[in-house]
Amino acid sequence: MSNEKRWSEGLIAAQNRDFEKAFECWLPLAEEGNPLAQVNLAYLHLRRLIEKADRFIGEYWLNEASACDQPEVSAMVEIIEKQLEIDVYHKLHEGFG
After folding, report:
1. Contact in structure between 26 and 40 (CB atoms under 8 Å)
2. What per-residue confidence (pLDDT) applies to 83?
3. Could you give the residue ranges of the DSSP H alpha helices within 16-93?
4. What is residue 15's predicted lDDT score, i.e. its pLDDT?
5. Phi-psi bin for 41: left (phi > 0), alpha (psi -120 to 50), beta?
6. pLDDT tens across 19-72, in order?
């Protein structure tokens, strides 16, 4: 399967909330160094949208993606990092409300 087809199938799967299929489509692309696929895998792991979600693996993919010079990817990385900060804040303050 071509990389373009993998990418497209992953997008369609994610739009249909089939995150396991999206993961399967994007993993080979991420392993080949595609930063958009890497940031998407990070998101799937860190938001626990896949069965075998792992925070450490998500952080690995986020770090890999952040090493690229693409503004679009950098913006996505920043958004995910902000979401993680908000999640931590809420967890720390759950008992204080």
Report:
1. yes
2. 79
3. 19-31, 35-46, 55-66, 71-93
4. 97
5. alpha
6. 999 999 999 999 999 999 999 999 999 999 999 999 999 999 998 998 988 888
Query: What pLDDT does residue 97 have?
Result: 53
Q: Is the torsion defined by CA of 14, 28, 41, 50 positive or negative? A: positive
- Cα–Cα distance, 31 to 50 (Å, whole number): 18
Tokens 């990070």: give the residue. Answer: 42
Question: Which tokens go with 55?
Answer: 């925070």
Burial of 59 (0-12, 13-18, 19+ CB in 10 A): middle
The two tokens of residue 96 are: 């204080």
CB 34 within 8 A of CB 17: no
Q: Where exactly are the structural domains of the chain?
A: 3-96
